[in-house]
Specification:
The complex is a heterodimer of chains A (about 250) and B (about 325).
Chain A lengths: L4 H4 L2 H16 L14 H10 L3 H9 L2 H8 L1 H5 L3 E5 L2 E4 H27 L1 H10 L4 H32 L6 H28 L16 H19 L2 H13 L1
Chain B lengths: L9 H25 L4 H17 L1 E4 L4 E4 L3 H8 L1 H19 L7 H24 L5 H30 L6 H33 L15 H20 L7 H11 L9 H12 L24 H22 L6
Antiparallel strand pairs in B: 1-2
Helix pairs in contact in B: 1-4, 1-5, 2-4, 2-8, 3-4, 3-5, 3-7, 4-5, 5-6, 6-7, 7-9
The chains are: A mainly alpha (about 250), B mainly alpha (about 325).
């Protein structure tokens, strides 16, 4: 994982800020649009400060858009009261709330994508545990995360081996059964060896991320600064004031 | 059936989160006290199996919709309720964090709908019908009943949580009318598949089906079998994975197409909205149409607001670019 000042901040601080962000965004009334836009500043700034791959994260965030539009679809049909007029076109509350739903979905997705990118899954598990998540669930999360990778690696190797031996033929269902069974034996054996090796080295459910957990001044500043910003954006209509000021200056 | 953050209010999300957190704490204590080390790798392996199974959608004939396995009931039969609940919770957490399948605020709702209900309502029903050592037909009937009940309750929970949040404009009755029949069909399929897997395990290793014996028996064999089914589902099933919308999306689209309602605008709606927001867990079933907002209706589309909003985006980008261009790698 890359390194930056943001990466080095304790994972608990980042998790708390992400949760505060989501709560503030979801607490808006259903017809808010403009007041949601400034919240994009959070993921954008974190991406820039931590030098995360913006295009990749944007792609992952946009994946939620089709589903968001789909679940917002009933709103224009059930909420037909006109709330705005753009030129001669009347805009009903339903369309406004549908767009609001899409924006919320994008914001929530961006926040969680950025959190995972800048923190990493093991650190998130550690943070959640220090924040109160029970140990057995934290251990289960780490083992699930670990076993998914084990299965993936083995599957790729066996697929490659099959390709080399199959002379261009694709995997038949009968052969797939044998390959899968073999993969299964290997993966299970490896996973069991890993677990026994960990036990042999004194594993009791503790895990070390390599960075000592420190909730110091930097973390407090990070949490307080972002939370204050979220509350300000939530309670004051920053967008409206800025827009009015700019239009006032221009006219 | 995974709920998204966008349809949830913080009140509903927070309330369900608290309920789920309490359930997680209780189950964690039970798993820790049972103290079986071998359960840990088995839980991890079955989590991966559940992941693979949930990625595959199957098409429900005659409706143009698709669904996927929940798996909570199956896990409860194999692991016992406490461990099963933790495994389902872990799968849903990973799905929310990595695949944006279900939101972070919605985790409490999703773990409740897809974990708590099948494990703590469906599984006891299975046990009641199936008893300790059921014959295959009885086991099938038990699995069917338990799966159908779990999924109906889960679907109804989604409807209630959505309506209680007040972000979607779907009325409760319309939403329920479309969600429940679809998830009845999904429940039937889940029951059949669960019963098939349970009978397979019964033939391979009967002792595993009694959770109290899970500690005494070595668990490598059944775990192996499960990974096999997981990979088979993942490999073969993925070819047949349906592109069609899942039950929730289908029902929303269908109910929207059938919509023809006018929303009455009365003071009663405003007060109902306030009542609803104050008691998010006890929605008023008498709602008709979308409730009015508690705060005065604001026009989020005012020109000045849009200009200001876009301007803050531009400012954020410029600020980020300026910070990024500073010299020094770290």
């Amino acid at each position: 994982m890359a390194d930056s000042a943001v990466h080095r901040i304790d994972a608990r601080a980042k998790a708390i800020v992400t949760l505060a962000f989501i709560v503030c965004v979801m607490s808006f009334g259903r017809h808010e649009i403009a007041r949601l836009l400034p919240f994009f500043a959070f993921p954008i700034l974190i991406i820039m400060l931590a030098q995360l791959p913006a295009a990749l994260l944007l792609r992952k965030t946009l994946l939620v858009l089709p589903v968001a539009l789909l679940i917002g679809l009933p709103n224009p049909l059930f909420d037909r009261e006109v709330v705005a007029q753009v030129g001669s076109v009347e805009v009903s509350g339903g369309w406004v709330s549908m767009l609001s739903i899409a924006l919320r979905a994008l914001l929530a997705a961006a926040a969680s994508v950025v959190l995972v990118a800048v923190t990493g899954f093991p650190a998130i598990c550690g943070a959640l545990e220090r924040l109160g998540m029970p140990r057995p669930l934290a251990v289960q999360l780490l083992f699930l995360y670990r076993y998914l990778g084990v299965l993936g690696e083995e599957a790729l190797r066996m697929e490659y081996a099959y390709d080399l031996r199959s002379n261009g033929r694709s995997l038949s269902i009968g052969h797939y059964g044998s390959v899968a069974g073999r993969l299964l034996m290997r993966t299970w054996g490896r996973a069991e060896r890993i677990y026994l090796a960990m036990c042999a080295r004194g594993f009791t459910g503790e895990f070390v991320t390599g960075v000592p957990a420190r909730f110091g001044a930097t973390e407090w500043l990070f949490v307080v600064a972002w939370c204050v910003l979220f509350v300000v954006l939530r309670t004051q209509d920053v967008a409206q004031r800025l827009g009015t000021a700019v239009i006032g200056v221009l006219s | 059936m995974h709920m998204a953050d966008a349809l949830l209010s913080p009140a509903v999300g927070g309330a369900m989160g608290a309920v789920t957190a309490a359930a997680v704490a209780w189950c964690s204590r039970k798993v820790r006290n049972e103290g079986d080390d071998r359960l840990v790798p088995l839980m991890g392996v079955l989590g991966a199996f559940l992941f693979a199974a949930q990625m595959i959608n199957f098409a429900i004939p005659g409706t143009g919709s698709s669904g996927h396995l929940g798996g909570g009931l199956l896990l409860a039969i194999l692991l016992g309720p406490s461990a099963a609940f933790l495994v389902v919770a872990s799968v849903l957490i990973v799905q929310a964090l990595f695949f944006a399948d279900g939101g972070l605020l919605a985790l409490g709702c999703n773990i409740f709908n897809l974990g708590f209900l099948p494990v703590f309502v469906g599984y006891p029903l299975y046990r009641i019908i199936a008893g300790d050592t059921p014959s295959p037909p009885r086991s099938t009937v038990a699995a069917l009943a338990a799966a159908i009940v779990s999924l109906q309750l889960g679907a109804m929970a989604v409807v209630l949580e959505t309506v209680a949040s007040g972000i979607s404009a779907l009325p409760l009755k319309t939403f329920a009318l479309f969600m429940l029949p679809i998830h009845l069909a999904i429940g039937i399929v889940e029951g059949v598949v669960t019963a098939a897997i349970v009978s397979f395990v019964r033939n391979a290793r009967p002792g595993l089906l009694e959770p109290s014996h899970a500690t005494a028996q070595p668990v490598a064999g059944p775990a192996v079998a499960f990974l096999a089914v997981a990979l088979a589902l993942g490999g073969v099933g993925a070819w047949f994975a349906s592109q069609k919308p899942d039950g929730l999306e289908w029902s929303i689209t269908r109910s929207a197409a059938a919509a023809d309602v006018r929303i009455p605008e009365t003071a009663a709606h405003a007060s109902f909205e306030r009542l609803q927001q104050a008691t998010a867990l006890l929605p008023d079933y008498g709602f008709r149409g979308a409730p009015a907002q508690a705060e005065p209706r604001r026009l989020g589309t005012s020109v000045a607001g849009m200009v200001g909003g876009l301007l803050t985006l531009v400012l954020a980008l410029l600020l980020g670019w300026a910070l990024k261009a500073r010299p020094g790698r770290r």
